[in-house]
User: Fold this.
Amino acid sequence: QVQLVESGGGLVQAGGSLRLSCAASGRTSGIYAMAWFRQAPGKERQFVAEVTWNGGSTNYADSVKGRFTISRDSATNTVYLQMNSLKPEDTADYYCAARPYSSLYNYWGQGTQVTVSS
Assistant:
């Protein structure tokens, strides 16, 4: 099992920045990739960004490219999401997730709330 704990959410004005953190514990040796998803009120959960654990390859949703950066610290088993130029439409609960190779995301954190005011 893998446990994920997010932190760093909060209230920020449009144009501001926030950095989310996700600390992984447990059987982290089996992690192939970690990602951030978000879910706005009344909407489905959507993919935000992904990073592979060994090579550090990244992938982003079009809506956040150029504004968000995902990174990982293998020494501390932590993934970060640096969010810049935030917009009100970025308001959502943000979830950290992890997956083994050739698998869907099956480990999830409890979520952290991000609110961007206009």
